[in-house]
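Good day; I would like, with your permission, to put a structural problem before you. The record follows directly beneath this note:
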Amino acid sequence: MGAQVSQTDYEWVYTEEPHATRRKEILAKYPEVKKLMGHEPRTKYIVAAVVLFQILSLYLIKDASWVTVVILAYCLGGTINHSLTLAIHEISHNLAFGHSYPLANRILGYIANLPLGVPMSVSFKKYHLEHHRYQGDVERDVDIPTEIEGRFFTRTWSKFVYCLLMPYFYTIRPLFVRPKPLTGLELINIVIQVAFDICIYNFWGIKPVFYMIAGTLMGTGLHPLSGHFIAEHYMFIKGCETYSYYGPLNYLTFNVGYHNEHHDFPYIPGSRLYKVKEIAPEYYDNLPQHSSWCRVIFNFITDPSIGPFSRIRRRMKTDYEEKHIKDVQTPNGKTHAD
């Protein structure tokens, strides 16, 4: 059902990703942008408030009907849990406590993870930072769909299924594309999460556990907030690989819609990304952008010119080039480290 996707391979380019060049130009022209770098003190309070709200929700729905639980898991739990995944995204850049307090950031990541029902905080960080550093590199950037995804999800019905199953692909893809050994921090993440889930089940039963996990899976699947997964880097215009969105859903997603700005300056917290655009509007106003994440999802599913292959792909860097890669510096001049 639906027309066949016309694109049968990635868009191959042999140029560097655009963000490092634009960052350098903006900092040279507007050095005051560097003052925006640093942590956002309010993040820890927002995370604490949202986690407490979700725990209260778990208690309140323990005796609700299954129909009510499913509806709330999608509408309320899915929205809040998706928001928490983007809090974890902020925390992965050490933007909650700053680069001098990596352990505090990790602990807050564990806390933000609790209502999700599934451990992901630490695993997300170890792959996401490579997405920034190696954008488009099919071996290192696990955000890029695999060739199997590109060849299978080629029609309207299958792209609809693809959007439904988006969280599964994001979870499973790294295990095949770029497998890494389990770290101690990941093990702690797993133990804390499983212990929390067991406690919720023992005290309040299966419905709250379902609400958590189903909310996470539905909220990061075919859900309005999930439009950002497609909007950020799928090539809707030939040659353009990153897009921003400046609409109201940014209030629920830590301004992740300011995605060009985020990739240009990954150490500026979401709460201050709008200031980058205000300071240097000539670098962003004329870039292609999305006005609706829901429309992005609809267009992805129905437009035969767009599919999982609609991504820009780069060759891997040579060993010589790799030795000369310099990561983005933090405000104190140190490279990013955990």
User: Anything to note?
Assistant: The longest helix spans residues 66-92. The chain has 15 helices and four strands. Confidence is low (pLDDT under 50) at residues 325-329. Strands lie at 11-13, 244-245, 289-290, 312-314.
